[in-house]
Amino acid sequence: ALVISTDAHTPAQFDFMRLGVMTARRGWCTAIQILNTRKWNELASFRKNKMKRITESSGKHFRNKHVESLS
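Below the sequence we write its predicted C-alpha cells.
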C-alpha cells in the first residue's frame, strides 16, 4: 500500500497533492492501493494488522537469535 503526501511546509503547498495523484496514476495505481483514500476504520484495521505482523516478525527474530546463542 502507498500513501500520497504533499510534503507541504505551508498551506499553499497542499496543492502539491495533485502532483502525487498524477504520479500514482501514471504508475497505474488505483484508489484501493492508496491508503489515504480509505475510510478511517479501514486505515485503522490496516495499521493494526501491520503492527501485528511487525511484532510477530520481530519476536521470531529474537527467539531465533536467542536459541542460536544457547547452542
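Helices lie at 17-26, 40-70.
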